[in-house]
Amino acid sequence: MKGPASAFAGRRAVLATMHGKERAIGPAFRDILGIDIEVPGNLDTDQLGTFSGEIERPGSMDEVLVAKARLGLKVSGLDLSVASEGSFGPHPQMPFIPAGLEKLVLIDARSGLVAIEHSVDLSPCYAIWETRRLIDIADQIRAAGFPDQAMIVRPNSGPAVIVQKGVQTLENLEAAIGQAARVSSDGVARVQTDMRARFNPKRMMSIASLAKKLADRLCQTCSSCSAPGWGVKGTEAGLPCSWCGAPTAWVLHELMGCFMCDHETSRPRSDGLTEADPAHCPYCNP
Ligand SMILES: [Zn+2]
Ligand SMILES: [Zn+2]
Fold it and tell me: Is the CB of residue 155 less than 8 Å from the CB of residue 205?
């Protein structure tokens, strides 16, 4: 049992969510850290922006994440808070692949610790279809996991309104597509995967593994200041080419750091790779 040994054992944390994320985050936090997660009943995280885009998100993803966790502290009166944020779109380096970035924060108001961990999902359930009729996309949405995976329907052009979200029956989907197509100036409906956690099972799984990653990290303490959360904070390029030894853009070292102090160390990459493929060398394969 690692739980009781954690610096947080026996504490309660508020989780600022309206989307059932406690199912994904609760088990790892309880088993690994000994933290009990509770969700306040009177929380409107949609004030902070939503996936369906009706409300503009203020600030960067980290700012929204931390603001959400602080909102949790405020409404619950607890001194420990957890919040999660996701962002979906084309992969920044590989624009033809969709990617999901998930972030999770734990704020400890007692110590001032703000611990943020992230993960990248290279196969998120994230897709958009433009259609006039349900039948034309029925196979594709089923392949995407419908009806467990819910859909959002809106007009493809014209009024920027959501016709329906959280759609999980064929009848509702057909009606919503018809309604959206009628008000769209091009007669086409835009159907997309609902990215809210409780409507997106793949996302729920990503959040669960991220919760485990953050919980494991919070069991590691800084050797300089003893704060919990010692872990990877970045990478350093320069892995040598296996032919000529020149530094490449590939990762050479992982930078390890602390959330509370400036202590930092570097270690070789965790996958054990010590040389880069010459195809990525600036000299061997320009
Ligand atoms: Zn430290
Ligand atoms: Zn080379």
Answer: no
Give the angle 116-254-259 at the CA atoms, nearest 5°: 30
Instruction: In whole angstroms, give the CA distance from residue 123 to residue 129.
Output: 17
User: Which ligand minimizes its atom distance to the CA of 229?
Assistant: 1
- Ligand 1 centroid to Cα of residue 116, in Å, is 15
How many other CB atoms are there within 10 angstroms of residue 244's CB atom? 11
Q: Report which bound ligand comes closest to the CA of 224.
A: 1
Task: Choose the CATH number for 3-124+197-219 among 3.10.129.10, 3.90.950.10, 3.40.50.720, 3.40.1190.20.
Answer: 3.90.950.10
> How many Å lie between the centroid of ligand 1 and the Cα of residue 29?
22
For the whole model, what pTM was predicted?
A: 0.86
Expressed in angstroms and rounded, the spacing between residue 267 Cα and the centre of ligand 1 is 17
Distances (CA, A) of 95 to 92, 98, 100, 116: 6, 7, 12, 26
Quote the tokens at residue 84: 């999660």
Summarize pLDDT for 20-74 with one digit per residue, the tens: 899 999 999 999 999 999 998 877 666 655 544 455 556 888 998 999 999 999 9
Neighbours of ion ligand 2 (CB under 5 A): 241, 243-244, 246, 278, 281, 283-284
Q: Which ligand is nearest to the Cα of residue 285, counting in written order?
A: 2
Residue 157's SS3 state is coil
Q: Could you tell me the fold of the domain covering 128-193?
A: Dna Ligase; domain 1 (3.30.1490)
Residues of the chain with CATH 3.30.1490: 128-193
pLDDT in tens, 5-32: 689 999 999 998 877 899 999 999 999 9
Instruction: Give me 223's structure tokens.
Output: 């050797």
